[in-house]
Design goal:
single chain; 2 domains; four-stranded antiparallel β-sheet; 8 helices; globular
Length: 238
Amino acid sequence: MPNNATVLVVEDDQDIAALLIQSLKQVGLEVVHSSSIAQALQYVRQQAFTLVILDLSLPDGDGLDLCRQLKQTDPEQAILMVSARHAEIDRVVGLELGADDYISKPFSVMEFQARVRSLLRRVLLLTTARSNPPSELVRVGDLMIDKHHHRVTLKGITLDLTATEFELLEFFAQQPRRVFTRSQLLSSVWGYHHSGYEHTVNSHINRLRSKLETNPQQPKMIETVWGVGYRFNPESVL
């Protein structure tokens, strides 16, 4: 995990907040607790957080609005949504806004901690890459992925990718033409597999396409293989 990792927990239910805080401290993390959007924004202005754990139903507004504000300020802010909302549309909207992952209540402590570790692992990779001067490039036609500086350019234009989007694209580009199921991507990129969370992959694919493709509605770079999953088409960037 990143050194001195600090997590902001935005949760108004005191019992759930206590459980989240205890679970995070068990894995050695520093925790700051907020019970409202206004208080969370105040904390974010005062210090940087390695991870924000965000409930959707808050007393002074919708957590989705807070997610949008956080991502506008810092697109690379790691966010894990935790909510009792079970409608798929809420999960999809949260992920489309930039949340890195979404877990539904009720959940086990072990699953929650696994999600947190997975997110922090990606944050650590990003931090290490930026502090490491050598460059390791993955080139596919007009697409260049600079792993050590966490930079992606397409036809000379720098793309603004989150840590998860970067890792997902790198995974595809290093194994072009190979078809991956949603379960395989969830396991390989997110580092876990729990049945019912394949929508996490779908939403990140959609976000990545919106940044890569000329026409995201008719993707040519990250193709859908119907009934199976997705694959990276290198010919699309030649």
